[in-house]
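Next comes a single protein record:
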Amino acid sequence: TSIFLNTEKNSVLTDVKIRQALTMFIDKNKICDEIFSGNAKTAYGPILPSSPSYNENINKYEYNYEEAEKILNDAGWLTIDLKQEEISLIREVVDLEKQKKEQEATTTDTDKVENEEIANNDLINTFNEKNESMKLIENWEVKKSILENFALSDDDLIGMWRYKKTNDTVKPYAYFTINLSTVDLEDNISVVEFIKSSWEKVGIKTFIKIINSSQVQSEIIKQKNFEALLLSQVIGSDQDIYAFWHSSQISDTGLNISEYKNKEVDKLLEEAKSSLKSEEQIEKYKKFQEVLNNDSPVIFLYFPTYNYIQNKKIK
C-alpha cells in the first residue's frame, strides 16, 4: 500500500525534497501497530523484504519530523497559525466590505438619499472600525486571503498553514495543500485520516476524498484525476515489477500510476526481465530500488499481513 503522487496536478510535488519530507512526516510504525494491530509491516519500496532482491541498504526516509520540517522551511514555506477569533473577525470584515461595495454600486432616488447616506455612514464606520481591528492581526493579509480562497468551515480553517509569497498580483500567496484520495474501505479511511493529521501538524492542509471502488479505475487512475492517491497493489510472489514502474506502462490501462519516468530504471527493469541468471536479476533489482527511492515518486507505506487458520493435522 502506497501513496501515489501526481506532479501534474500539484506542482509543489515536483520537488523531490518535498516528496521525501512528506514521507518523513509519516510514522509508518504507528500505522502498522495502531491501525493494523501489528498485522502489517513497514514498506520502503515495492519489493517484499522476504525477496532475495530486497535492498536493505536503500535510503528509507524513516519518520523524522525535525528533518522534514527543516526541508519545508529551507524551501521557503512559511507558517501561520489561524485562530477561531481571527476567522470570525475576518469573516465579519469581508461581509461588511461586500455590503459596502453593493451600496456604493446602488443608484438611489432623490427622496431616499438622506436616509441612505445615514445608513451608508453607519456601515462605513462599522467597516472602518472592524477593518482596523483586523489589521492588528499578525499576517492579516495572508489570513484574509485564505478565507477568500478556500470555502471551508471554521474547523477546517483553524490551525497551521504553509504559504509562500508570489509575484502574482491576483494571487499573491501560494498555499501548500494536498488532496488525498483513497478507495472507500475502512482500513484505507483510517490510514488517510492518520496521514492528514500527520501532515496538518506541520501546516500542510490535507483534504480527503473517498472514492467508490467502482469509480477508481475509470474516473481516477485512467484519467489521472488525483494529487495523492492511497492505493494497494497486489504484486504477488513474482519479483518482476516491470508492469508497475517501466515508463512504457504509462497509459490509460497501465499500472504505472504516478507516470514515473527514468531511463536508468527502464534499462534495469528490461535487463532484469530478460536475464536468465538469478544473481544478475537480483543485482539489477537492488539497483532499481536505489534509484527509485532517490526519486521518491510514491510514498511506500506498508505490506499487510494476512493471517489464516489451519488445522494442525495438516502438514
About this structure: The two ends are 32 Å apart (CA to CA).
